[in-house]
Design a protein that fits this description.
The complex is a heterotetramer. Chain A has ten helices and six strands. By secondary structure, chain A is α/β, with parallel strands linked by helices. In chain A, strands 3-2-1-4-5-6 form a six-stranded parallel β-sheet, with helices on both faces. Chain A is globular and about 65 Å long. The model of chain A has no long low-confidence stretch (mean pLDDT 89). In chain B, helix 2 crosses helix 8 and helix 4 packs across helix 5. The radius of gyration of chain B is 29 Å and the shape is extended. Chain C is extended, with a radius of gyration of 25 Å. Classes of the chains: A alpha/beta, B mainly alpha, C mainly alpha, D alpha/beta.
Chain lengths: 261, 241, 201, 504
């Protein structure tokens, strides 16, 4: 009993903790409600994001022309806070790999981290098995270059320029290596898309890539590509955004009137 | 086994390794820089060398710093450090991903990794970024708080830009696009207008970050050229290396 | 079982680590610390998986393809040699030599190439086709001009102007991006913890 | 029931593989777009052709893509309201300007707006019952050709689209699948054809054989930018950068005489100058070899200044590569000053993995974070330099050299917020803007962008050496960027003028 009381006491001891817990509970509640609605088929119209549309088109075109698409999943590591960006790279790879597998075509995935590599291996193997071409699963469709970001850039740029790829999609945690890969592959006849969450990386990537997803849009990859259940989390994010803006406005008004410290 | 060549190297004159090293480094620098004039065999050699050495170096570091010390602790005091044993077994399961037939065994360690990572991302995003950043954007926009008379009015512009800009930039990411109904259309127009301003601010931010990064990269290029000219060719005189 | 065990592991690990953020209690903290440390151990194992992948991809290239065979050999040899020196002689002069004279210059020069790439990217980004490109052009040139080493000598107001740009409009834009990213990160993490998204099974 | 796309065999709805030909059925689940009728893979959220939402109505239950139940291959039907929407949309004037240029680059912006408007403004209502649909496709197909045209893509960019046998059929992927399916057994004839199936077959045939709208769909608008820079232009640009970096060799670096330290640099130099002999400074080398070129000169200048002021220095790193750099740097400094010895004047503790949790232990005990030091492998208490230094609070100043804003943030959030000390961040120029808010709030005592600060620091600390400032180069680089901006816009205006004259 005592440890529990201690735990509750320590929870209550910090105002940040209480605020955070309240926000988290609200977030969870909204998330469960909206995801349930999305799963039951409630519509949630979203604005168009050109880069994701292009991915749809590129996948169709790749199936038609037989040219593979490269998906760069960056250097985020699963098991750290970089997981969420890394996971979005994996989601895009999942989408591309499923389509490629269904038509028994090649795909290329690269990453700078072993944990993403192992997750991506599972994704690709599953896609090949589900498509009925389990024997086509080969180790060399997923490549590891790294772990340093620039090593990843050099290795990946080399790999995608050696063979003719239709497109180069870079989604995940990227730093300056996004610029490196984008510019090194510029001479090739290749569509380049991508996105990252860090402002420093995205400032460079949007200068070099044909189309770019920025910041929060990266985390919508699943909803825009093939995971309809993710639409629920977009609705949650929108609601939380409105609440956050209202909170900022209310606090600013109170602060200006002298009610807050 | 490796001690013999190491000892042999130690018998060479003191500066030999350093001079050889400078030459190797300079040639590799030139090979890499040659990429500026298009891909060529020298660059490809440098690229492959880098990929190989980086992976080998990182793996050696992971072994020396992460795995070997913990393995020693586990062997020495299994009762205290039993949990290292658990993670070593999970690690071996993760290695099963390399083989097609036993790949499914890797799911368990990946579950652990994704669960831990998700919690770190959620907790960090909430307590490290979301709440502190919202708190940081709560600034007084009352001119009286910034000084008397017109001075206060002049200084209050900055917090107003920061607060309004933060809200606008946040709005730029809004996903919803419902248009049915007049009220919704109004809301939609508002979101678009504010989001447009936000997108402008985000672009200013990108411009500034682009310029800073360019400066950073140029400084790195300079340091490589200084290495070539000063340390290798000894063309530039300076008091110190 | 094949699916349930990893899912249970994910939820359980996630709950412990998450609780640690809100309840600074020593026993929960200890479990969470073990899990976070365990994640780094697993990442070290995963690195070896990556090394195996590199060896197999390039080994296959050496064995089957005529083109680039020599390069594959260089890669494999340099990898194995560095690994052997690093494991057998940690902290030795030989490892330091590899770091100082091979690894460091290669990495640093790869980064130096970014100076060229950033200019050719600017050629694309500075083309004033849209209002956004114009904003980008103006703000980049302003920031880089105000940051010159002799800026202070030209006018003491240049650094002040730069600081204003960076602390007012840029901070506002960046805060918007960061807040949005935090929302996205939280939603993504929640999808894992509530097993809406299961990339591991 | 699922019709196998390869051999038309009808399988029970829970079949995973076709009973007749053995092909996989799992992925052959298609959904017809409610507004244009194109078939899309079931996972798509947008129609690949008209970009409309494919989010279905309440009649269908949605499940995760990974466990999509196998549904009929028969396309689900658009409702009456959808049809009206489609007609209305078709009657509306084409939105957005059709690009006249033959440069796809210039078309991009317009393409994006067209697509955006279409996908945002048309929203299909809930799907209705199938019996409402008799006679519907003809109307819809009549309406279809007058739909806003997708912008044309220059044929030279996509020659394969012109030559492809399956041209125009890319939305109808099952056909492609059937073509790629190598071995099919006998193709069993369906026993009897119901009215709905007949209708579906007609719809399918009419869509497949209708060339007009599909031709547009085949010219998928892929945002491929024409190569703006020719190989020669690129080489010229790179040559300019190289020349800019080499300017000081030709000009003798004259502008370095104008160098005047900025306030932040002066204040850091003053802080270090005011440290009494024997006080201690903790330096964290949180940068890797890639950015060492930028940070090293400043780190060297600060290190020399500390050594000259006889301040004890303890170095560590949260970057695996940083320890090697620290050791290299201190070997250089120790080589210059004979009485500057390891263990007495300075020590390198090593690499601290796991930035967040690891850094937090620094507040309680250095010995817990680092069991032994990096160079001599001795416990910390054995080193004379570590006298009276047990936790991070015992240091007079903490200096962090970093190439990643996250590591500086970890220092602020995990260490500085827990135990009070003055923290100086000397970082790459690339991440400096991201840390400015922390300097404004006072959490960082100093924030310096390394790029060209080494020279300024040497001036400010009075330790000036005849070392290179390389100041001219930065000025030249700024000029190169300006020239680039002018060149690209001149080129752009010229192309536009040429296009305009072609248009007339």
């Amino acid at each position: 009993m005592q440890p529990l009381i201690d735990a509750i006491e320590s929870l209550l001891s910090s105002s940040l903790n209480i605020t955070a817990l309240a926000v988290l509970s609200l977030f969870c509640l909204l998330f469960v409600v909206f995801t349930g609605r999305a799963k039951r088929g409630r519509r949630f119209p979203v604005r168009a994001i050109p880069a994701y549309k292009s991915i749809h088109q590129l996948v169709s075109r790749s199936l038609e022309s037989g040219q593979p698409i490269h998906v760069g999943m960056g250097s985020g590591r699963v098991g750290t806070e970089a997981m969420s960006e890394a996971l979005m790279g994996l989601t895009v790879f999942d989408y591309v790999a499923r389509h490629a597998a269904a038509y028994d075509q090649a795909v290329l995935g690269t990453t700078a981290d072993g944990t993403i590599l192992s997750a991506a291996q599972g994704v690709l193997q599953r896609a090949r098995e589900e498509a009925g071409f389990a024997e086509r699963y080969a180790g060399n469709e997923l490549r590891f270059y790294g772990p340093d970001p620039l090593v990843y850039a050099a290795g990946t740029a080399g790999a995608i320029t050696r063979d003719q790829h239709l497109a180069n999609i870079l989604v995940g945690r990227f730093g300056h290596e996004g610029l490196w890969i984008g510019e090194a592959a510029q001479g090739q006849d290749m569509v380049q898309l991508g996105g990252a969450a860090a402002p420093g990386a995205i400032a460079l990537m949007q200068a070099t890539l044909d189309e770019c997803v920025i910041g929060e849009e990266v985390f919508a990859a699943g909803a825009y590509l093939h995971r309809r259940s993710h639409l629920g989390s977009l609705a949650t994010q929108d609601t939380m955004r409105i609440l956050a803006i209202l909170a900022i406005i209310a606090s600013v008004v109170m602060a200006s009137l002298g009610y807050l410290g | 086994m490796l001690e013999t060549p190491a000892n042999l190297l130690a018998t060479l004159p003191p500066n030999t390794l350093q001079i050889a090293g400078t030459w190797v480094a300079a040639l590799l620098t030139l090979a890499t820089l040659s990429y500026v004039f298009g891909g060529n065999p020298a660059f490809r050699l440098a690229e492959h060398l880098l990929v190989g050495i980086a992976a080998g170096y990182a793996a050696a570091l992971a072994w020396n710093q992460m795995l070997w010390p913990r393995l020693q602790l586990l062997v020495a005091e299994p009762a205290t450090y039993w949990y290292y044993g658990v993670f070593f077994v999970l690690g071996l399961l993760l290695l099963c991903r390399g083989s097609k037939s036993v790949s499914v065994l890797g799911n368990l360690p990946l579950g652990v990794l994704f669960g831990t990572g998700a919690a770190l991302a959620l907790g960090g995003g909430l307590t490290g970024t979301f709440i502190p950043q919202i708190r940081a954007s709560v600034l007084s926009v009352n001119p009286a708080d910034y000084g008397e008379g017109s001075l206060g009015w002049a200084y209050v512009i900055d917090p107003i830009i920061v607060v309004a800009g933060t809200i606008a930039a946040l709005t730029a990411f809004h996903f919803g696009a419902r248009t049915d109904g007049r009220l919704r259309a109004l809301w939609r127009g508002l979101v678009r207008a504010v989001g447009g301003v936000g997108r402008g601010l985000i672009t200013i931010c990108f411009g500034a970050l682009f310029a800073s990064a360019a400066l950073s990269f140029f400084a790195i290029l300079n340091s490589r050229l200084v290495f070539l000219l000063r340390d290798w060719l000894k063309l530039l005189y300076t008091g110190r290396p | 079982m094949k699916k349930i065990l990893p899912m249970a592991a994910a939820i359980l690990c996630g709950l412990f680590v998450l609780t640690d953020f809100f309840v600074p209690h020593p026993s929960i903290g200890a479990v969470a610390a073990v899990l976070v440390e365990g994640a780094t151990i697993l990442a070290a194992f995963a690195l070896f998986l990556g090394v195996v992948n590199l060896l197999s991809v390039h080994g296959r290239r050496v064995a089957r393809e005529a083109r680039g065979r020599g390069l594959g050999v260089v890669l494999i040899a340099s990898l194995l040699a560095t690994l052997a020196i690093g494991v057998a002689l940690p902290g030795s002069a030989a490892l330091n030599w590899v770091f100082d004279y091979v690894y460091y210059p290669l990495q640093a020069t790869m980064a130096a190439l970014l100076a060229f790439f950033v200019v050719s990217a600017a050629y694309r980004a500075f083309r004033v086709r849209t209002a956004q490109a114009a904003i980008m052009l103006v703000s980049s040139l302003l920031v880089i001009a105000t940051q010159l080493p002799f800026g202070q000598a030209i006018s003491p107001y240049l650094p002040i102007a730069r600081d204003w740009i960076l602390t007012v409009p840029v901070t506002a834009g960046m805060r918007g991006i960061v807040l949005g990213t935090a929302l996205g990160t939280m939603a993504t993490a929640l999808r894992i913890l509530l097993t809406v998204d299961r990339p591991y099974v | 029931m699922i019709v196998c796309p390869a051999c038309n065999h009808r399988n029970p709805s829970d079949a995973l593989v076709c009973e007749a030909c053995g092909g996989s059925l799992e992925h052959f689940v298609y959904r017809a777009c409610p507004s244009c009728g194109a078939l899309n893979p079931a996972e798509n959220v947008f129609c690949h052709r008209c970009f409309d939402d494919l989010v279905p109505g309440s009649a269908e239950t949605i499940v995760e893509a990974s466990d999509i139940p196998v549904e009929s291959f028969v396309p689900s039907e658009p409702s009456v309201t959808d049809r009206e929407e489609a007609v209305r949309e078709a009657a509306a004037p084409p939105v957005g300007e059709r690009p006249t240029s033959d440069l796809i680059l210039e078309a991009d912006a317009e393409v994006a707006t067209t697509a955006e408007v279409v996908s945002e403004e048309t929203e299909p209502g809930p799907l209705a019952e199938p019996q409402q649909l008799v006679g519907e496709p003809i109307e819809r197909l009549e309406a279809a050709p007058s739909e806003p045209e997708a912008p044309m893509q220059p044929s030279e960019l996509i020659p394969e689209a012109e030559e492809d046998v399956l041209e125009g059929l890319e939305g109808l992927v099952p056909i492609a699948a059937a073509a790629t399916q190598a071995h099919a057994f006998a193709l069993p004839v369906p026993p009897s054809v119901s009215e709905t199936e007949q209708h579906d077959a007609e719809l399918f045939h009419s869509i497949a054989s209708e060339r007009g709208p599909l031709r547009d769909a085949a010219r998928v608008v892929i945002p491929r930018r024409a190569r703006l820079l020719s190989r020669r232009g690129r080489a010229l640009l790179y040559l300019l950068v190289l020349l800019a970096a080499l300017t000081p060799v030709f000009t003798g670096d004259r502008t370095s005489l104008l160098l005047r330290p900025r306030d932040s640099v002066t204040s850091l130099a003053r802080d270090i100058q005011s440290l009494p002999t024997g006080s201690a400074v903790l330096i964290s080398f949180d940068y890797g070899p890639a950015y060492a070129g930028e940070v090293d000169p400043l780190a060297l200048a600060v290190g020399r200044h500390l050594a000259a002021s006889q301040v004890r220095v303890v170095a560590m790193s949260t970057d695996p590569g940083g320890v090697g750099l620290a050791e290299h740097l201190y070997r250089t400094i120790a080589g210059e000053m004979p009485d500057y010895r390891y263990g007495e004047s300075y020590a390198i503790l090593g690499y601290l993995p796991g930035p967040e949790a690891g850094l937090r232990t620094l507040c309680t005990s250095l010995g817990k974070a680092f069991k032994v030091d990096y160079v001599q492998r001795r416990t910390l208490s054995e080193l004379p330099v570590m006298k009276d230094l047990t936790s991070v609070q015992d240091f007079d100043q903490v200096i962090v050299f970093a190439d990643d804003s996250r590591s500086v943030r970890s220092w602020i959030e995990q260490v500085q917020s827990q135990c009070n000390f003055s923290l100086h961040a000397l970082v790459t120029a690339a991440i400096e803007p991201m840390l400015l808010p922390y300097q404004q709030s006072g959490q960082l005592s100093t924030l310096i962008a390394a790029a060209h600060s080494a020279g300024e620091y040497e001036k400010a600390s009075g330790m000036e050496e005849p070392s290179l400032h390389w100041t001219d180069a930065y000025g030249a680089f700024c000029l190169v960027l300006l020239v680039t901006a002018i060149a690209t816009n001149v080129a752009y205006l010229r192309t536009r003028a040429r296009q305009r004259s072609h248009g007339q």
